[in-house]
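Re: the 118-residue chain
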Amino acid sequence: MNEFLLIFRRDFTTKEEQPSPEVLQTSLKAWQDWFGSLAAQNKLARPLQRWDGEGRIVKPNSAVINGPYAEIKESIGGMIVVTAADYDEASEIAKGCPILKLGGNVEIRMAVTPPANK
């Protein structure tokens, strides 16, 4: 089995594209159910910290600033690591992601395991 990073993206900058508080509340249950289903199937390898507004950005000049902040149309709203045999299975897992119902998308990347130290 392989590990895949699922990156959840949505338009977090355009006011007109923001879901209502009611839609967000309803989507929380969908997220909980989806995560619970993945965990029950042993597909949730590593849940990662939900973005809470905290973070850092390292700039090319080695400056470190507070962030991340949405500076592009599509921003990362979260990410998890799942276990799947291949990209096809990871894609099937991603098709159940609640972000899709909010107009977002899921980027899938295979996690790389570093070679063992010799």
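The chain is about 25% helix and 30% strand.
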